[in-house]
Amino acid sequence: MLARVRCGALMGVDAVVVDVEVDMTMGLPFFAIVGLPDNAVKESKVRVIAAIKNCDYQLPQKRVTVNLAPADIRKDGTGFDLPIALGVLAAGGILEPAALERHLFAGELALDGSIKPIRGALPLAVAARDTGLAGVYVPEANVREASVVEGVDVIPVSTFRALVDALAEGVPLLPFRPVAPEAAPPSAGEGVDFTDVRGQEGAKRAMVIAAAGGHNALMIGPPGSGKTMLAKRLPTILPEMSFEEALETTKVYSVVGLVGDRALINERPFRAPHHTISDAGLIGGGSIPRPGEVSLAHNGVLFLDELPEFKKNVLEVLRQPLEDGMVTIARAMQTITFPSRMMLVAAMNPCPCGHAGNPAQACTCHPADVQRYRARVSGPLLDRIDIHVTVPPVRYRDLTPQREGESSNDLRERVSRARVRQAARFTRARGTHCNAQMGPRQIRRFCEVDAESGALLQNVIDRVGMSARAYDRILKVARTIADLDDSEAIRACHVSEAIGYRTLDRKLPG
User: What's the rounded mean pLDDT across residues 67-75?
Assistant: First the structure.
């Protein structure tokens, strides 16, 4: 007898519907799974057989062949356990095949028949809806994230026996219905505020500009000057995520199994990997590609502290995601694209000892050591960072409790106003949400400069020898500064300030 159950296979941050076809014929007991399964899927037959027996169902002593179609797509993960087990029971006559139609099933089986959570429940629910299925059965632990998808019933299941009994009796389990909109989960930066940062008004101004335009930023300064404090507080001044942004981010986290018990990740991510990370860990990869840190920071902030300490080959793989907002990973079997539209914020010392240019403490580094240290960050990568800002040592008078700067709420209001101006500007531009994402045509249209600003740009570029990419970055930052000033025109003062944020195009202190 032949039975068919629908499941799904992950392809990047999306999913495709897979038909689990189970054929049962006479012959010596045999259980085979075909259709490009990985090791986790191949091992599912052991879990399926044990779960069926431990739930007091009789497994027929026949030849069982399971085909995962389409057979040219690689299948991985443990989510195929549940549909395979249901297909075996349907092929053995315990379940009616009609009871399994119009729904998608996914879940990992424990040996006692309980159903464990899986990765990618949200993309699977999206695939079920887009295919026209009526509902999706997912483990109880995944029901909150899957329920974000409208237009499809999301039905939680906790045990294999309860599900089989319900399907056999024709009494379907009730779909999950959120009682009320969920409150936003605590932010990763809860308890931090820009008022904690003493002094550093210039660096704070640079962080506001970066947040307002979605620009990449690099902070250069001695140890203890507040670079990490500034970076950790950057998410507190970013505008709230839209539903579309939250859905995109949640899909990435769902694929790697990091959603937890949340329905939607509606706080902008802040990822800070250690400098020992590999290129696959940063950009994504593996034999079956998985998202890396740049994708986990999608719609948020990726912070690289001690930038020159990262391996050079690791830093160089950042070029494509910084330029295109996506990562393409090619393998012999498939090519996967992950989203990576994030803000890169990095910090570094001006030299190995960290005190080059510090008037209060002399640098002890040999000039050759300083040169090698700075050369670890290549020019093409620096070209893709819009804002370079020097963070000087903090003076004593700035550390006194009486001196308190603007709060994150105040700065966030200014950033949000600038983002509203940009949203109105880019209403017809697909994929463009902020100034940092402007393409060449949009730069020509929205970043016109007057004669005074043009002369200033010509003088600086001819004298310093900046690249064409650096020129575009200056115009984008100047556009953001003008937006913060509620100015439709870019004036010379805006261009001058934007040029001042190209420290590494000129010279590091030392």
Answer: 93
Q: What is the CATH number of the domain that holds 424?
A: 3.40.50.300
Q: Is the peptide bond before 70 cis (omega within 30 degrees of 0)?
A: yes
Confidence of residue 58 (pLDDT cuts 50, 70, 90): confident
Mean pLDDT, to the nearest integer, of 462-485? 90
Long-range CB contact pairs, 168-173, < 8 A, 24+ = 168/94, 168/95, 168/96, 168/99, 170/99, 173/137
What integer pLDDT is reported at residue 360 of this predicted model?
78
> Residues 199, 162: one domain?
no
Q: Residue 48 is part of a domain; what is its CATH number?
A: 3.30.230.10
Domain-terminating residue out of 431, 447, 462:
431
Q: CA–CA separation, 453 vs 101, rounded Å?
A: 66
> Domain total for the chain?
2
Round to whole Å and give the CA distance between 413 and 238. 9
153 close to 135: Cβ distance less than 8 angstroms: yes
Q: Is the pLDDT of residue 187 over 60?
A: no
Which of these, 293, 503, 257, lies nearest to 385 by C-alpha position? 503
User: Residue 179 — pLDDT band, cuts 50, 70, 90?
Assistant: low
Instruction: Specify the residue for token string 């819009």.
Output: 386
Pinpoint the alpha helices (H) of 311-438.
312-316, 319-324, 367-375, 379-383, 396-399, 408-425
Structural domain for 79, as ranges: 2-169
Cα 501 off chain centre by: 27
Q: Work out the angle between the directed axes of helices 468-484 and 408-425 (0-180°, nearest 10).
A: 110
> In terms of Cα–Cα distance, which of 194, 285, 259, 195 is closest to 231?
194
Exposed/middle/buried for residue 73 (C-beta within 10 Å: 0-12, 13-18, 19+): middle
Q: Which two tokens stand for residue 50?
A: 């044990």
Longest pairwise C-alpha distance within the chain:
88
Question: Which residue pairs, CB below 8 angstroms and at least 24 apart, start in 375-382?
Answer: 376/307, 376/308, 376/309, 376/310, 376/312, 376/315, 377/307, 377/308, 377/315, 377/348, 378/312, 378/315, 378/316, 380/316, 380/319, 381/315, 381/316, 381/318, 381/319, 381/322, 382/218, 382/504, 382/505
Which ranges of 268-378 does DSSP label H, i.e. alpha helix?
279-283, 293-296, 312-316, 319-324, 367-375
pTM to 2 decimal places = 0.88
* Structural domain contains residue 315: yes
Task: Please give the structure tokens belonging to residue 436.
Answer: 């940092």
Can you read off the two tokens belonging to residue 173?
């389990």
Is residue 400, in this structure, part of any structural domain at all? yes
